[in-house]
Every structure is written in C-alpha cells, then in structure tokens.
From TrEMBL:
Residues 1-10 have a biased composition (Polar residues). Residues 47-66 bind DNA. The lineage of its organism: Bacteria, Bacillati, Actinomycetota, Actinomycetes, Streptosporangiales. It holds the Pfam family TetR_N. Residues 1-25 are annotated as: Disordered. Keywords: DNA-binding, Transcription, Transcription regulation. Residues 24-84 form the HTH tetR-type domain. One of its GO terms (molecular function) is DNA-binding transcription factor activity. This is TetR/AcrR family transcriptional regulator. It comes from Actinomadura barringtoniae. Gene3D superfamilies: Tetracycline Repressor, domain 2.
Length: 257
C-alpha cells in the first residue's frame, strides 16, 4: 500500500459517518421550537416561514413533518396540554382541599410559564382559537374533572356534580387569564378564593343531589382543622354575628308548606 493510499485510508477511518436526526426526534425539535415562537407571538401572526426559520429549516423541510401550520399548531397545543396534565397528576396531598390548593398553585405556575399561548390553547371562549387548540383545552378540562372526582372520592359523578365541576373549571380558567393581564388580586389570595369556591358551590348543590351530600359528609370527616376546607367552614361560621344568628335561626325554623 502506498503512502497516499494509507493516508486516504486513515482519513476515511477518522471521518465520522454522516448521521441524520431520526424523524421523530426532528419532529420533536420542531414542536419545541414552535412553542417558543408561539410564546412570543400570537398564532395568527406567525407564518410557516417564521416557523421554518426558527427551526433552522426550509418550508419544504417543515412540510415533511407537518402538512401546514395548523397541523403544527395542533401538535403544539397537544404538547402544552400534556405538560399541564402531567404536572397536575404528580400531586399527592394529605387532604382533598390541600390537593385542590396544590393543583391550583401548579396551574397558575403553568399559565405564567406559558403566558404567551395560554389564551390560544387553554383559555375559555377563545372563538378565534384554532380547532386543535379548543380540542386540547377540552382534554385538559376533562382530565381535571377526572382527577378532582378522584380527589373527592367520587368514582362516577352525577350530572349535577359534573356540571358543578365544569362550571368551576371554567371559572378558574377565566380567572387565570384575567389575572395574567394585571397580576391582581394577589395570586395566593386568588388561589384560596378559587379553592373555597368549589367547596361552597358543592355545599350549595348538596340539598339537590344525594351524591354530593354523601361526598361532603365524607369530605368533612377526612379534613384536618387547619386545611383550606376547615378554614372555609370557620370563616363562614365567623360571619354569623348575634343579629345574623337570629335571622339564621328564623330561617332554620321555617317549615316548608
């Protein structure tokens, strides 16, 4: 073998083989980049060229993984929804009301982190949001209903209970989007208000739904006195002064015709 042949052989051994990213890995990188783009700019202000440029690829390369911008946005919406679901599932608390408080804290952490796209992916009533975003938002809401029922020891909610939970979730989403605009009221106070709101709404619904009534009996029995639910009950009791107590007694003594 000549010196020239040997040199060529050595260089060929030293040159690393050309490697392409796997299709799945490249797709994941594009989604991650698109999330950053949509965090900075609303979906309707972003073009496919913007996304391709941010991902360091051409339009034609991007189209190898996604048919159009809407399909990429669907993947982004699904990824963001999966992120919040995964975080909410990690909660392990000592009581139902602490469970709710911790999940509300996680939710508000999440909407702060993803503030730029929350209104398009998870906000209530965003009529201009693409269908993919609305589908992702609904997946999150359905999951919150599921984990809240598990927290409250309910295997299958009655229609009334499901309506109460979904109404509460809609209120939490709306409050979160509004809070992002001004950061008022204090976040910790708002989280407490929202947690107490669920308890008070369920108490209000209990007389019309046996399942809710039974669940509340169980809930009170497992709550420690210093829990958020215990604080709520004491707060309500503290509102009853002597004059109000007389009115409460009058109403309690009323006999239905």
């Amino acid at each position: 073998m000549s010196d020239q042949d040997a040199g060529q052989s050595t260089r060929s051994r030293k040159r690393p083989p050309f490697r392409r990213l796997s299709s799945d890995k490249r797709r994941e990188e594009i989604i991650a980049t698109a999330i950053e783009v949509f965090l900075a700019r609303p979906e309707d202000e972003v073009s496919i060229d913007d996304l391709a440029g941010a991902a360091g690829s051409s339009r034609s390369s991007l189209y190898r993984y996604f048919d159009n911008k809407q399909e990429l946005y669907a993947a982004v919406a699904d990824r963001v929804a999966s992120t919040v679901i995964e975080r909410l599932d990690q909660v392990v608390a000592d009581s139902p009301s602490w469970d709710l408080m911790i999940r509300l804290h996680i939710y508000f952490d999440f909407i702060e982190e993803y503030e730029g796209i929350v209104s398009g992916v998870l906000a209530v009533g965003s009529g201009r949001a693409p269908e993919a975003a609305r589908h992702a938002a609904q997946r999150v809401r359905d999951h919150i209903v599921k984990i809240t029922c598990a927290t409250l020891n309910v295997k299958k909610p009655s229609r009334t209970m499901e309506m109460v939970l979904r109404s509460w979730i809609a209120g939490v989403e709306w409050a979160g989007v509004e809070w992002l605009k001004t950061r008022e009221p204090d976040r910790a106070d708002l989280q407490q208000i929202l947690a107490r709101q669920l308890g008070s709404t369920l108490i209000g619904a209990a007389p019309t739904d046996p399942q809710i009534s039974e669940m509340l009996t169980w809930w009170v029995s497992v709550e420690p006195p210093d829990s958020p639910f215990g604080v709520l009950l004491r707060s309500v009791a503290g509102l009853v002064d002597v004059r109000m107590f007389a009115d409460v007694a009058r109403m309690l003594g009323h006999q239905e015709p």
